[in-house]
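A.,

Following up on our hallway conversation. Structure tokens first:
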């Protein structure tokens, strides 16, 4: 029974935000919202409502506005949308405004703007990303985001937890992307509808922040309300880089869970490189079973896998040669900070020498309406989070999803390739 499970981290955070000592699964609470995130695609409705009401945002510090999906704008229409957002930010004194070139909202937010234990909503489904830093974060509709912005609160039904115990350690050239693709293949597209994925166990020690961000980001692809990792030394050390201060109350509230009867146990040692086949992230299989499919385009970027470590692992593989002339490799750093780090450490030089096309920070090719749009019958392998029909352009195109290592290996070979082929080389 649900009530026999230990209290989840999600329930702890929502109880605190609602001013309650305890909440039960299925209970509806009105919780304080710490931050609201919008971007120029879904956020336009938020602006419409506020302007129609002719009111000022009562607490502009709560709102985080990003121009990231069209970065830079590809048309006059989009340029005018961006202009509208800039005027809105100016008129409403929005301090947290991030213009073109800053990066993808979900990456920039985890560069010192997300604090463990917070309640964060965003008018974007992949707001779940912030659960990697022990926050409750979920995507909501634009009208709900507006309500949270104007009132400082929102209603939530306490989701049933799925406790996931991780053991072992990830092998070389496997990553959090492979973990979540494996889990999606097991759970299916609706296997966690309105549930929270709660991670714990000794295996957490082998998951970097980037691994956790990728897992939390794509948790929504099996219907999860959110995913969350407990506060541990890896998170604490990461936050020190951004001078994020934690209280003892934060540490107590978010301490790691233990469950004698986890719903899922996953030995990370058994995880291998995975590839999601068209047209669902849950349609995943080991890369070795998909090898040989010829590709036209490889994309490394997005809020799932455009971070420094992602670019670094790609560079380690791509330094072995140049991509074929009939393959386009597009690399989009997920933020300006990531871009600068990759430049300073020589990673970008390796990618460029391999034949990569480097674009400005932002969402890039991921959602198919800005840069590197796919044409009819083209085949792409991408590190992004969705491969739905028409996601990156033409509905006649085919999209495969994989980790940065697998995408890099595939780009180098011109066909889908298991990156373990390069183990021990270079």
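Then the amino acids I'd put at each of the 426 positions:
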């Amino acid at each position: 029974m649900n009530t026999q499970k230990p209290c989840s981290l999600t329930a702890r955070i929502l109880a605190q935000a609602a001013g309650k000592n305890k909440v039960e699964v299925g209970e509806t609470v009105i919780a304080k919202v710490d931050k609201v995130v919008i971007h120029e695609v879904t956020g336009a409705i938020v602006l419409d409502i506020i302007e129609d009401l002719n009111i000022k945002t009562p607490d502009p510090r709560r709102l985080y506005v990003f121009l990231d999906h069209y970065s830079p704008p590809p048309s006059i229409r989009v340029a005018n949308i961006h202009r509208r957002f800039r005027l809105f930010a100016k008129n409403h004194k929005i301090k947290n405004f991030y213009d073109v070139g800053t990066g993808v909202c979900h990456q920039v937010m985890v560069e010192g703007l997300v604090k463990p234990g917070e309640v964060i909503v965003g008018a974007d489904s992949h707001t779940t990303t912030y659960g990697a830093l022990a926050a409750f974060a979920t995507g909501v509709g634009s009208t709900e985001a507006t309500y949270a912005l104007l009132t400082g609160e929102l209603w939530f039904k306490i989701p049933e937890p799925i406790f996931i115990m991780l053991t072992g350690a990830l092998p070389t050239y496997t990553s959090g992307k492979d973990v979540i693709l494996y889990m999606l293949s097991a759970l299916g597209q609706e296997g966690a509808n309105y549930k929270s994925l709660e991670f714990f166990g000794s295996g957490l020690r082998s998951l970097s922040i980037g691994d956790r961000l990728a897992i939390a980001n794509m948790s929504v692809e099996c219907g999860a309300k959110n995913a969350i990792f407990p506060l541990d030394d890896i998170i604490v050390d990461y936050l020190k880089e951004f001078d994020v201060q934690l209280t003892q109350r934060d540490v107590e509230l978010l301490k790691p869970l233990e469950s004698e009867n986890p719903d899922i146990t996953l030995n990370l040692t058994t995880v291998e490189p995975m590839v999601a086949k068209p047209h669902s992230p849950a349609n995943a299989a080991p890369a070795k079973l998909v090898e040989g499919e010829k590709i036209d385009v490889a994309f490394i970027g997005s809020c799932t896998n455009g971070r420094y470590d992602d670019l670094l692992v790609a560079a380690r593989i791509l330094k072995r040669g140049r991509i074929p002339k009939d393959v386009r490799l597009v690399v989009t750093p997920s933020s300006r900070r990531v871009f600068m780090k990759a430049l300073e450490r020589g990673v970008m030089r390796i990618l460029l020498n391999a034949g990569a096309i480097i674009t400005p920070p932002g969402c890039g090719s991921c959602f198919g309406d800005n840069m590197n749009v796919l044409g009819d019958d083209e085949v792409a392998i991408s590190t992004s989070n969705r491969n739905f029909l028409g996601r990156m352009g033409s509905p006649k195109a085919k999209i495969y999803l994989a980790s940065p290592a697998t995408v890099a290996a595939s780009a180098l070979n011109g066909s889908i390739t298991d990156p373990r082929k390069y183990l021990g080389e270079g």
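The domain at 7-269 is CATH 3.30.499.10 (Aconitase; domain 3). Curious whether your intuition agrees with the design.

B.
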